[in-house]
Write a structure and sequence with these properties.
The chain is of the alpha/beta class. 40% of the residues lie in helices and 14% in strands.
Amino acid sequence: MIKRYEIGVATLKRIVVIHQGGLRLSAYPMKEQQIAISIPENLKGCYLTYPFLSFVEYFIYLTQNPNMNTLAPIIVIDDDEDDRSLLQEAFNNLHYTNELLFFPDGHKALEFLHNSEITPFLILSDVNMPKLNGFELRDKIKTDIRLHQKCIPYLFFSTAVNKESVIKAYNLSVHGFFQKGNSLKALEKTLKVIMEYWTECAAPNKFHNQGGRQ
């Protein structure tokens, strides 16, 4: 007996976007709708490291996992190339499989958020950046109805931490303010705390991919 798995169209679309595949919906009178999805054979861009034997098993996992957005990309906004490289190395060492999307300033990150259908798992933002700094970017996201409704956790990740900056950040309703570690080991420790907390936390953006169900 074949077991049936129900999944919302929004979730299907999300899978397709992540893996750069295709989605086709067919509807015929007096018949059930048919949905066909195509995914690259090597699952390029897959954010999972679970030992699935086939795409079918991977697909079934996604239909049963209510927290799929924890596997989504993480936006990192930092104008320092060395810091970006160190952050990537720390993520690799911790074996997190989320793709890191790097932006050198808030303006480019905002353009991406406006033009992409992807809902990131987290936003890690530096404070002092050219064109659009971290505070200005947070304010624009907070006052943009469409972006605000995505409820993407926004965390500041900065070298300099002082009382004035922290107060200003929380007045903008950020979800955390962390100091960058002065070594790879310290950075890994902080990132692990962030990732474990937001993976377990029942954040609103985890429910956006369940076909509208609450």
